[in-house]
């Protein structure tokens, strides 16, 4: 293959830190900054939600385990000195559950039943948004100049539904863009040189001429797609190109395998990034000869699908996925292989990335995309990764065995009524329940203790309680039932006759 020096031009490589309801300890985040730096990261997207230390009238937005102001200031200062730009992400339209769930703000919902979307027509809504943005912007500008601010604007599931919005007699599109203008004005008021980022999904159905006469200055969309095989629309990108100064893209290194996923799929996350990088490699818009340079890539790492959802993959066990995909981005940026965009993902990994991944994860044995084995690795987080693999195995085994035993419960119940149980069946089942429950509790305790290195105890309690709730409930319920059959059985006291013969 020919060598070349022209690769993918991405000026910003951003790692998304999703803090909602589960902030990693700042000491841990600071400890991974050298690794991020070595892998080419130059910015962090900090999605605060309820983890920013708000003050005054909006202090109730902050969780009891939110970051302390002096600790957060110290972290941002350290990150800045290390060369990282900090980009705050504050939701200002949809995904406002952390605010709209509260009694003092629930009247600001667009639809009373749903706490996700705020009504943009209420004066109090804009006051709340203004107060949030003011505190975030002033705090960050007091440390380093705020270059970018992400205001969300994705998945606004309820818009133009309330009576006050409908009285405006405007289309959904007008309401969306008018709210965008108001939020941008607030940002400009406190930080005139800050560029606003928005997720792009609410723009995808808009026609090209519907962008006309909209003030989109200092606004840049982030086109996100987290699937292994992209569904990116060239038409949508063209519309953004014609109306915005820059376009960003967003992939996912974790938080895209399902609401209750425990570990990220290395294969799925890798293919997602490969597909994105192939897609933007020497990208040209129709009718243009010049290669278009996307401004940056945000590697999203969702901790929850929404504020009301359970925790999915935690950050420490997602480091292998992050390392792998940051190395992939560097590979495409360096442009050493002319036809890299033609290679299969497995070939890219095996020929160009595997050794470096092993090195950064401190693995003695080669890793595999299909079956990542951590036993020979010593990266920070390998222990909890291994024990969570054990949890997955245990949980699956318990579910399979439970279903088998459950299928036999009908016969147990039937013969119990006949006072006729087979102890050779029931006693091993009781033993299996006891042993499985003890093993599950032991694994739970190990995960609890390991997670305390990275998270507050309240986060750890929520995580392990949710993960182990179903398995323990099934085992305890089954054990209770089996013991009931065993204890109340009268076999030994009054053995029944299996057959009774009656003479004529």
From TrEMBL:
Protein origin, superkingdom: Eukaryota
Molecular functions per Gene Ontology: hexosaminidase activity
Protein name: Beta-N-acetylhexosaminidase
Organism: Parnassius mnemosyne (clouded apollo)
């Amino acid at each position: 293959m020919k060598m070349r020096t022209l690769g993918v031009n991405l000026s910003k490589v951003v790692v998304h830190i999703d803090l909602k309801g589960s902030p990693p300890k700042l000491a841990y985040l600071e400890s991974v900054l050298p690794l991020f730096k070595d892998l080419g990261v130059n910015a962090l997207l900090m999605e605060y939600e309820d983890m920013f230390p708000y003050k005054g009238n909006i202090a109730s937005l902050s969780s009891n385990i939110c970051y302390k102001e002096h600790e957060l200031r110290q972290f941002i200062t350290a990150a800045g000195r290390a060369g990282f730009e900090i980009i705050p992400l504050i939701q200002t339209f949809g995904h406002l559950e952390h605010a709209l769930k509260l009694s003092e703000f629930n009247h600001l919902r667009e639809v009373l039943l749903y706490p996700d979307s705020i009504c943009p027509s209420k004066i109090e809504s804009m006051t709340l948004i203004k107060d949030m943005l003011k505190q975030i912007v002033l705090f960050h500008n007091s440390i380093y100049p705020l270059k970018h601010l992400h205001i969300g604007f994705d998945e606004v599931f309820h818009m133009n539904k309330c009576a006050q919005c409908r009285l405006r007699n405007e289309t959904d599109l007008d309401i969306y863009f008018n709210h965008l203008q108001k939020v941008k004005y607030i940002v400009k008021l406190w930080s005139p040189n800050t560029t606003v980022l928005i997720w792009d999904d609410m723009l995808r159905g808009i026609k090209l001429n519907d962008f006309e006469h909209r003030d989109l200055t200092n606004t840049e969309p982030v086109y996100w797609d987290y699937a292994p095989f992209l569904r990116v629309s060239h038409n949508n990108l063209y519309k953004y190109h014609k109306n915005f100064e820059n376009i960003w893209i967003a992939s996912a290194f974790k938080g895209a395998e399902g609401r209750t996923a425990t570990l990220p799929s290395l294969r799925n996350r890798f293919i997602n990034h490969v597909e994105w990088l192939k897609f933007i490699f020497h990208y040209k818009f129709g009718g243009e000869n010049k290669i278009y340079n996307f401004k940056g890539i945000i590697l999203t790492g969702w901790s929850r699908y929404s504020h009301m959802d359970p925790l999915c993959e935690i950050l420490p066990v997602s480091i292998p996925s992050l390392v792998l995909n940051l190395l992939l981005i560097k590979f495409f940026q360096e442009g050493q292989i002319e036809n890299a965009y033609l290679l299969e993902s497995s070939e890219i990994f095996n020929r160009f990335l595997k050794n470096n991944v092993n090195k950064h994860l401190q693995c003695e044995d080669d890793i595999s995309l299909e079956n990542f084995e951590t036993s020979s690795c010593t990266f920070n987080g390998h222990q909890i990764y291994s024990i969570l693999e054990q949890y997955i195995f245990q949980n699956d085994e318990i579910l399979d065995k439970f279903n088998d035993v459950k299928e036999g419960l009908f016969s147990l119940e039937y013969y119990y009524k006949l006072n006729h149980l087979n102890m050779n069946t029931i006693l091993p089942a009781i033993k299996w329940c006891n042993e499985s429950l003890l093993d599950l509790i032991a694994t739970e305790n190990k995960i609890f203790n390991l997670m305390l290195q990275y998270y507050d105890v309240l986060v750890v309690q929520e995580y392990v309680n949710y993960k182990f709730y179903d398995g323990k409930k099934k085992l305890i319920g089954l054990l209770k039932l089996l013991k009931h059959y065993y204890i109340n059985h009268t076999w030994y006291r009054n053995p029944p006759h299996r057959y009774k013969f009656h003479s004529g």
